[in-house]
Design brief:
Strand content: 15-25%
Order of helices and strands: HHHEEEEEHE
Strand order of the largest sheet: 1-5-2-4-3-6
Shape: rod-shaped
Number of strands: 6
Radius of gyration: 31 Å
Amino acid sequence: MQQGALQFIFKVFETPVMQKTLLLMLIMALAALLWPSKPKEETAEEKVKITNPVIEYGYASYYANFFEGRATSSGELYFHHLPTAAHLTLPLGTKVKVTCLNNNQSVIVTINDRGPYVKGRIIDLSKSAFAAISDLRRGVIFVSVEEIE
């Protein structure tokens, strides 16, 4: 059976068209080995997103107890124990890394509300998010806000 298969293969490649086809396929395979394709280049937008994340610097505070259980701008209810925050311009649902610049502690929160509406502040954190990076007794801290998603 093996000899019969080999004879068939040799018989098929006896024709000039099949010989040229085989030669062309071998040349293409050799070219692919010698000159592999280049990896996809990043677009300018992708490079900016990777190398230049948006970072804001300013003061952060936390929600007062008064807001517990009330609706946020996104329609979700605010609860102290959830890692959420309010920001004036970032899209709702955006995840940001907030770092206290006094001690380098960070927390990741989801923007689900608008604010703060106090001059000089850039973000309002939930009580638990604030407590994760600083002592609640401080009330206001200097932070960096970095968009991650």
